[in-house]
Amino acid sequence: MKIIFRLMVIFTASLLILSCASGASAGKETYSADSLSVDTAISEAAMYFSQQLNPGAKLALVPFDSPSGRLSDYIFEEMWTHFEDSKNFVMVDRRNLDRINAEISHQYDSGRVDDNLIVSITRQYGAEVLVHGQISALGNEYRMTVYATDVEKAASSQRAFNIRPDARLASLLETYADDEVERAIAAMASAVTNKTIIALGRISYADTQTVSGLSAWLKNSIISSAQKQIDKFQVATESESSNLALLSRGLSVEEPVTGSHVQAVIVGTYSPLDNDAEISLQLISTGGNKALLSSARFIISAAELQRRKLSLLPEKDNSFITKTEFEKKQNAVKSYSGKDNKWEFSVTPDVLDGIYYEDDYMAFQLYSAKDCYFRIIHIDVNGMSQIIYPRSVNDNNFIRAGQTRTIPDNTRFRMTAPFGEEMILISAYDSPFILNLSSGTSALDEDSVIRGLNVESENKTVMSPSVTARLSYTILPR
């Protein structure tokens, strides 16, 4: 059996696609003799499988992997109607389809998805046949492949069609970033049964903690879209979100979050896909099991990023840093990744999304599972590093096992220009060390950061950190 698909919907607008469609309208393109319109291909696919599959089977139809969300939705709705009108099948409840999508999407993000797992998950919701597929560009045409998987026998059949661009296909391929966010949030809303109070967590770049202007734009668009889902979502106030950040340490704890009314958090990542940006969002319960309630994936095209003046990379002095500069900074601080930590140790900002605006006050929380002594370094927008804690003999840099410390504890950090990404680097040690109370700054580079990890104990012995942590946050103009 071979299943080739991703159950998360991928959305993008493509200038190349639109130009192909325009060329076809003007009669400038030639297409294969067996090419069909998208409507005819959908109809023939549904007719073929209606004849091939066992009558009365319980059928689950899930969104197709497609160049745009509108096209994927259109194929889904049209094919659903064809199967339902045939009266040959029992259609799986759409709420269960959302749950199937969410679970397999989570497995896909975790890198653990395979054919047998997909069949197992589908079977859990009572489906006997899973219909899915994909449509992708193939020269100046498109190729739509439809699969039908017998869940019990774990066997698949397929049917492929060549689709020629026309006015309807062009309109379905034309998408905008706001539409994609709204579609993703609507899909998440459909996956919850009761009205849910949600907050927005970090939406960061790839596997880093970096947030950017794209993060801020996504935050605003997600909130706006969630507020339209008045029957399913209630967006938490800023104070409720801040309280959740304080209580949950960034949702890293295993116990239920208490003292907060927030019931779920939307978190996500974005990463480059050629010149586009691929966005992955997850709706996660704040309850004890941290259950994945729903997930969505979509793409913001390069044209949309350019039109909105958005970049995946952080900003600095009202312009985007280069990829080279970004990678140099990430390499310099990789020793603070925490991957070799000897016990649980974390740092969390007092806002869930890691975005601050001019004149905001910033604080962060440290948590340690064991007694230790810590040191904090600040990296500013320009890449200059400075020890900010401890700064005097009066600063208490000891943290007890199981304790959460709020920093700063004797002053306030006010966010001001220059705007852009800054970092907090933390190293902690088993025993006290000689304090370096220098207030000077130095340029960030990998060698100096690695050298700076080692400190002298009170008996002059060189000590390496037992645990490290880092936090990225972004300052934006108000």
Main pleated sheet = 7 strands, mixed
Q: Domains counted in the coordinates: how many?
A: 3
- Poorly predicted runs are 1-27, 108-113, 250-255
- Which CATH-level-2 architecture of the largest domain? 3-Layer(aba) Sandwich
Count of individual helical segments: 12
Q: What structural category do the secondary elements indicate?
A: alpha+beta
Mean pLDDT: 83
Q: Briefly note the CATH topology name of the largest domain.
A: Rossmann fold
The strand count comes to 26
The radius of gyration is: 26 Å
Shape: elongated
How would you name the CATH homologous superfamily of the largest domain?
Answer: ABC-type transport auxiliary lipoprotein component
Summed up:
The chain is of the alpha+beta class and 478 residues long. The chain contains twelve helices and 26 strands. The N and C termini lie far apart (55 Å).
What labels would you give this structure?
3 domains; Rossmann fold; 12 helices; 30% strand; seven-stranded mixed sheet; 478 residues; alpha+beta; elongated; Immunoglobulin-like; five-stranded mixed sheet; disordered N terminus
Structure description:
The radius of gyration is 26 Å and the shape is elongated. It has 3 domains: 15-173, ABC-type transport auxiliary lipoprotein component (Rossmann fold, 3-Layer(aba) Sandwich); 177-312, Rossmann fold; 329-476, Sandwich (Immunoglobulin-like), CATH 2.60.40. The chain starts with 14 loop residues before the first helix and ends with a strand. The protein has helices spanning 15-25, 38-52, 69-86, 94-109, 115-124, 167-173, 177-190, 213-228, 238-248, 302-307, 323-332, 446-453; strands at 58-61, 90-91, 129-138, 141-150, 155-163, 196-205, 233-235, 264-273, 276-285, 292-300, 315-316, 319-320, 345-349, 355-357, 361-362, 364-368, 372-379, 384-389, 398-399, 403-407, 413-414, 420-429, 442-443, 455-456, 462-463, 467-476. Strands 14, 17, 18, 19, 22, 23 and 26 form a 7-stranded mixed beta sheet that branches. A 5-stranded mixed beta sheet has the order 2-1-3-4-5, covered by helices on one side. The protein has 478 residues and is α+β, with helices and mostly antiparallel strands. The chain is built from 12 helices and 26 strands.
